[in-house]
Fold:
Amino acid sequence: MTALTLSTAAAPGLRADAIVIGVAKGAKGPVVAPGADAVDNAYDGRLAGVLETLGASGAEGELTKLPAPAGFKAPLVVAVGLGAEPGKDAGYDAEVLRKAAGLAARALAGSKKAAFALPVDDAGAVGAIGEGVLLGAYAFDAYKDSGKDAKAKNGKAPLAEAALLGGKPRDAAHKSAVARAVAVSEELNRSRDLINMPPNDLTPAIFAAEAQAAAKEHGLKVQVLDDKALVKGGYGGILGVGGGSAATPRLVKLTYTHPNAEKHLAFVGKGITYDSGGISLKPAGHNETMKCDMSGAAAVFAAVVAAARLGLEVNVTGWLALAENMPSGSAVRPGDVLRMYSGKTVEVLNTDAEGRLVLADALWAASLEKPDAIVDVATLTGAMMLALGSRTFGVMANDDAFRTAVYEAAEEVGEPAWPMPLPEHLRKGMDSTVADIANMGERMGGGLVAGLFLREFVGEGITWAHLDIAGPAFNEGGAFGYTPKGGTGSAVRTLVRLAELTAAGELG
Structure:
């Protein structure tokens, strides 16, 4: 992973492959952003004009490369667009800085060192730039040829080192911001690695082993229920979904505790390591990316480990509901009735609505511990993608204030989200003549129907929120900002922020 340092060095004398600066859209053309004064001075104050001549406008997502001025030890200047110039006495938004730093880090793949001279007003800006660099420099190359010709075949290695100019190495707040950026980004990138792994190499058992290894490394408690333990415990949802695969299911419980904690959060993640749809087989063209159906479990895993690394004064339990949904002679069939861990029975009308079944068991298990709040994360419904697109996740909850708090936490960390309702009239569509509830309801509002189903398995009186990350969990398009192609790590930063707010007594 890219090394991140704070530096007070002057840009002209810094040995690096490139100097990254910001350029904004001003009223009369591009404007060089604060932090790049030394670079602008070396161009006799005419850097904005030079950039404009090269076609730069300062728009977000824009990147312009130009030779460094005479006397600089770095040969290259990389100008990244920051969007509209903020008003007087206003700083740049953290997400703007995060995206700009990520864009530059990705563009500088193959470089040994880059200096980032972006606007730094406070420790928050330091953290945002650091996160952007570390997330933008991410690359998944575990399955690329590692032989002598690897570089020629696989492109350039990620940026090796980033020096943040304007940061204060001796300032406690700045050092803390960098440490937080490193912890959160490393764990988020771990979740990306898991999402990107092919399903033949990430079965439920292997995912559970990854969790056990991380728990040992970071001092977490871990409990793994295998298929035999799941049978003994009566986890009918997880067993039903995983019954068609030779790769047997698992339920993993990761526990982080702090001696001073007064609150307890439970995070529950959908971990379908591959989703064929089961007997209700997905049509051609819909199977190729279904290795990403465990993104919710990956997010929960990463968030619990990040909370431990940050030493947050809150108890956090992560539940990973892991199964592979495959068609076979032992697979659950449309029309089958499953008895869930809660004791409720579910008529399975569609085996491709499997995520809610594994989550139901895990939600009930989490509820039995009486946490202060439960948040589940899942790539649950295509309906949510139709509603919100590919970059925004939906937030549902059984408490309006908590739904708002989750939404605001997501927006704060730069994860686009939108509050969604749980209309009571949609619940009737899941009535079953043979069971307590069916796993399908009305087609219209399918994402909301799924949320209503999950609500049935949350313990009475427990505050709960559901994050449907079906859209942003896996980027099938081109990379943008600090978001790579493939697994994104969606919801990790939201969960970590919720843990931080709870530890600070600002949530619930």
Notes: The longest helix spans residues 172-196.
